[in-house]
Amino acid sequence: MTTLPFYTAVTDDFEAVNQLIMRQLHSRVPLVEKIGSYIISAGGKRLRPLVVLLGARACGLTDERPHTLAAIIEFMHTSTLLHDDVVDTSDLRRGRSTANALWGNAASVLVGDFLYSRSFELMVELNDMRIMRVLAGATNVIAEGEVLQLSKIRDASTDEATYMEVIRSKTAMLFEASTHTAALLADAPAEQTEALRRYGDALGIAFQLIDDLLDYNGDAEAMGKNVGDDLAEGKPTLPLIYTMREGTPEQASLVRKAIQKGGTDDIAVIREAVENSGALEYTANLARQHADEAISLLQTLPPSVYRDALEQLARFAVDRQF
């Protein structure tokens, strides 16, 4: 994963963050370390700590504090993954069994809590109330987004505005908090801080839109999860919402019933309906608009390899197949 070009600008920083994360997983309870190490070692793209490093360096910060902030963000993200897999009853993530599938729901929830509390211990080490305020607020917004999404499960009346509120809260918020706090840590000028905050929001939205698109035309092996997972859980994502709104009466009815029922019995015909309705193209275009917005916001930063990497990352968010 780290061979992708936008990682190379912060290769050494990234390795330092990985080492810090593994050190901070220590616990006097062996099961905490075992589950924590398992979920962290699954890897993934680690885009949120990446944008912390790139954002801080792009703003001219040269010390090691971004390593701590990046570890904080990764712990926050990993804790939400542990909780999400329990809520979604998922058994596969990043091509491996989920922690809840291996150790049960109770242990997964509690280790998720441990990672959250460890992230706040690290925040105290940074001793920056501005960063504490942003990350504490982000934690609330993410939790609200998850509950809003939960309340819309199998609700075929969910509209695009509600869907956007969900993804802005549950996904984009942590990207936004990552770039926002990176700029704060660097004491960047107000204009750069606001631009990086908005960059994170736009990047996160683009990323989630493509994730939801790939649920219908992606490759399960490349993604490390099952195609059709969202439909199986009854999640009304944008490809489905668009198909119900703009598709033929037959397509709309088919999707509506599938959301209400859940499961993947009709995944083949649903994928066909979503594709034929133009929903995938609509979702991809919306993702590109947000990626373009993210790139335009970077013009407030001075030219550097870090700014270039942030631009490459925004392009990757919409061009990827996994």
Automatic annotation (TrEMBL):
Superkingdom assignment: Bacteria
Keyword Ribosomal protein: no
Catalytic function, reaction form: 5 isopentenyl diphosphate + (2E,6E)-farnesyl diphosphate = all-trans-octaprenyl diphosphate + 5 diphosphate
GO molecular function: all-trans-octaprenyl-diphosphate synthase activity; metal ion binding
Keyword entries, A-Z: Magnesium, Metal-binding, Transferase
EC number: 2.5.1.90
Keyword Magnesium: yes
A GO BP entry: isoprenoid biosynthetic process
Cofactor(s) required, per the database record: Mg(2+)
Biological function: Supplies octaprenyl diphosphate, the precursor for the side chain of the isoprenoid quinones ubiquinone and menaquinone.
Family according to the record: Belongs to the FPP/GGPP synthase family.
Protein name as annotated: Octaprenyl diphosphate synthase
Native organism: Halopseudomonas bauzanensis
